[in-house]
Amino acid sequence: MIVAFSVSPLGVGEDVGEYVADAVRVVRDSGLPNRTDAMFTSIEGEWDEVMDVVKRAVAAVEARAGRVSLVLKADIREGVTDGLTSKVETVERYLAEG
């Protein structure tokens, strides 16, 4: 499964990068395949391990902010591995073909 999620503190002002970095650090330390872009962090693995990482990432932000916003989207597909890479490669292949 691939989960794309965004976690942000609420009520701490406009600059939230330091808080978001705390969440991304949890994801990167998990050892699961992951990518972070301007809007979301995506992580790939089995349901329980991915959801545990998301929960810990939220907790890392919550430890410094009393209120947290979480947006989560999941692609649950049995038997697919390396979806973070293969899905993008498929789109790039079609783009290259014209």
From TrEMBL:
Gene3D superfamilies hit by this protein: 3.30.70.930
GO CC terms, sorted: cytosol
Superkingdom of origin: Bacteria
Ranges of residues in domain Thiamine-binding protein: 3-92
Family: Belongs to the UPF0045 family.
Identification of the protein by name: Thiamine-binding protein
Origin organism lineage: Bacteria, Bacillati, Actinomycetota, Actinomycetes, Kitasatosporales
